[in-house]
Fold each of these.
Amino acid sequence: MKISAHITQKIVFTILLLATLVVILPVLLIIFIIVRDGIGAISWEFLTAMPKMGMRSGGIFPAIIGTLYLVTGTLIFALPLGILSAIYLTEYAADNVLTRMVKFAIINLAGVPSVVYGLFGLGIFVVFLKFGSSILAGSLTLAIMVLPVIVTTSKEALDSVPQSFREVSRSLGATKWQTIRHAVLPHALPGILTGIILAVSRAAGETAPILFTVAAFYLPRLPQSIFDQAMALPYHLYVISTQVPNVEVKIRYGTALVLLVMVLSMNFLAIVVRSQFRKKQKW
Amino acid sequence: MHERGLSLRRFKEFVIESAIYASGVLVIIFVVLIFLFLAKEGLALFKTVSLSEFFFGKKWYPISEPPQFGIFPLFLGSLLVTLGATIISVPVGVASAIYIAEVAPARTKEILKSGIELLAAIPSVVLGFIGMVTLVPLVKTVFKLPTGLTAFSGALVLAFMAMPTIVSIAEDALNAVPRRYKEAALALGATRWQAIWRVTLRAASSGIVAAIMLGIGRVIGETMAVMMMTGNAARIPHSIFNPVRTLTATIAAEMGETVQGSDHYFALFAIGIILFIISFIINLIADFALHRKRL
């Protein structure tokens, strides 16, 4: 009886391990394939030249720059708003209906499908506020989409600062804001930074929200203002792999590789920041 | 002087604290705005198209004359893909969560968790692309189909994309079960697996329900990968090996070609309302499950 329970355990644990491998191994395989088939396309020209011949040759420079603009724009809007909301939730929120509503709103924002953000951005920024299809409209749309990421990670970071830090500061006569500014925020900063990096990586990789708010199919020049359309890496990958026939496979893989490297290096950075922070954390 | 310095500081604090409150409220306003703007554009469709035509119409021919806006085939497409992805991702995802939370040694655990985070980070368009060049031809030859762009291929990729959500939330739920529960079971002579199966899993069940719900939410809302993998045929599917088109893919594929203020434009927003409501309900259920856990 006892032995059979142990054998059951062995079998079950093996199945659980296999299930985990089914999830993890394809990830490594995907990364391996993209690196193997994409590395050949990477050259100085590929990274810094305009696309040529209807995107069948040349480089992806405007798409890289477009994505950088979008990410920067997203941060300008989402960063202050996200961190302030997180401060509201951890430091100011009383246990009332408003707080519950804010929390539920954040959960909800996190669950709204990305293409619905695209519709919303089209409806409010492109059409209603007349920004047109532009970097401004795209950045605002992406900002609202990544807001929950920044709020939840910042909130976690703020929550992890011990209550005693606040009590000591307040007992020395500091006001509430002084306490937050000098006794809480500095300790939560690495955690907040992690959230910001993850938000950037999400904004850089999303396609559906920018489809109708900013993305240009083919625009072989750099955007001149925030009211210009722009190319973006994820949309470019979509376009050259489904909309344009006879694009060399190498170029597709190369574009995927650049996007992947961009996104994954940011995630890696986030992991490093977080683990450094955990090591230093004294409480 | 001192007085003025103090009042200036008070004023500064007042401004900052107002900004903090305003940010909190703004988050709520965004959700309301999303709904209002979807409703504003989407409900305009129903001036010309009846609700039953929209929901039960079997034909989605938005640009023929007269156009037909029946989302039934799209709804079936989403349902089929979601169902397929859920059937695959729930058992595999929960099993991985159990392995990572309860079985794996500490070092392995960290590596596996990084692997899951890596998966979560890969953009959906990259997964769609890789799926197109590897999985689609494979599905075509293995099942001897005329095309590999089917609901099944989409479901496979989506199952994969739902994993990080399911695994990480289920793992959190398992970790949140107090250690003493399991220790009590072990002390009574249960094997580790018996303790996991009979005690930890039961105690974490609402969190696991939340994980599954949010995983399903992720699947229903996914757009790019599913658009690239399922063949984009807005017809009623007869099996999971038919090409389909989901609600999300329809919006993404057609919005670029519509005229602003046309019925087609309104119809795509109406689909947006449906997606918004579905995700709202899913989050509501997940939130409810998570809160019950804490009691």
Note: The radius of gyration of chain A is 23 Å.
Amino acid sequence: MSAQQVGVARIDRDELRRFISEKYREVATNPELGFHFHTGRPLALMLGYPTELIDRLPTANVASFAGTGNPFLFGDLHPGERVIDVGCGAGLDTLIAAQQVGSSGQVVGVDMTPEMREKTQEGARLMGLANVEVRAGFAEALPVADGFADVIISNGVVNLCPDKRAVFGEMLRVLKPGGRIQIGDILVHKEVPQDAKDDIALWSG
Amino acid sequence: MLLEQTGFTDVVMSNEIDVFSGSKHESDAKDFDTRGVTVYARKPA
């Protein structure tokens, strides 16, 4: 497939997804390699996750954390709520959310990278969290029914999607009326040149 | 803001954090003044 206009960039979206997925496969399987962005426990602490919260999670899930914010800064989730973690990655936020919503709630983690999905699923198994389900999918086409969720969480994912309007539209679709998003991401305060937006190598840092 | 354009309301943003400070990506992040942030918004009832 050739490059097409996708949101802000003229790129081949499938190629971009492959590139990003390969990067995050490495984060999942070899978190100790070191990346262009921070990862793991030091990053989680920088973002304000309480130490006691991190200490309750399996080490492997924490090690591959690669968020840019903290969805729980705006408050804990409530027992019984249905949650979608868009781009759940290694599952740090999914596992925290699953503990907060409890056995009457449900958390669906969605990620395009198999190694990340496996890590989240394994973390849920180790913690005995039967309310976690992990699905393959993309932020622009969530594998979830209309009006499913009370809350959407996400962390460092929307910036990897060139068509942000499509992502937010999809979030609206799967939220219940009155539902909320609590998402960590990045803000870029200076204009990024179009040639940089069109360069797939720059999308995942 | 795009969130409001797509239909969200009650948008609130957290304080920004220099999440790339000390990382290999730091110089690129500084070039574009890139910061981490957390956002809250609601779908109208």
Note: Chain A touches chain B at residues 34-38, 43, 46-47, 68-71, 73-74, 164-165, 168-169, 172, 175-190, 192, 202, 205 (CB under 8 Å).
